[in-house]
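Encode chain A's predicted structure.
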Amino acid sequence: MAALESFRDGWTALSTTPTLLVAGGLLVALSLAGVLDFGPETEPIVALGLLLTFPFVLGGFLGMAVAAVRDGESSLATFVRAGVANYSRLLAATVLFVAGLVALFTVLFALTLVPLVLLVLVDMGDAALVGAGITFALSVLATLLGIPTVLLFVQFLAPAIVAEDRSVAGAVRRSVALVRHNLGSVVGFTLLWVFVVSLVPHPEVLLEVSPTWLPATPYFGASTLVVAVASVLSTAALTYCYTVHAAYFLRLAGGQPAWTRQSDRPKPAGTVETQ
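Encoded structure for chain A:
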């Protein structure tokens, strides 16, 4: 199964290309920066900086991960090239993705709020009350299912941009098509992947459980030891998870990992190649 094989692909890519940990570390560093307390005056500037930095780091990481899975090797030079080459498209995709989620959430929230307002402000009969209650229940259900469904169908947006050099619109269509044609596999993989990610000790969680008797680090509010442990654990685990996701996209897209090709398999000692 592609879903299970992608977890093996991720481990193999990480073991053959340990420099992926550097790129993964930068992604973790961005998440750590997001939980720092810079104060109300500085936070908007930091948020803008993270928004402008994220596409480059994401593009670089995906470029390295795709190269490691597809070719069996990668380098930090790949990180820089992929980050620069895909920056504008990933930035546009990030802005559109966030704006789309906000718009979707706003619409669903409004649909949920309207029945409640009608119940409070309008003196309705029993039949109207039942109808408003049903509308409210359906609105809540749409909210609970709508956002996860959107995330499910566009989860391969960034990999499609980096691995297949597609435009933002083309990457959206590609992601939706892959999910639609492999719905069972994608749903199973996504549930398994989210479960594995949920087991990862995320930086913000580790920072919150910092022992009070250890000296605090400026901005983090946690000890230097906890910050270091959180960074190392999160870097290794999240880098593996993100590489697995890229490997799964490549398998869905028809890409074949380097170590599964006959010509790239290790040859027994003493084997003589023939022309």
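Residues 153 and 180 are 8 Å apart (CA to CA).
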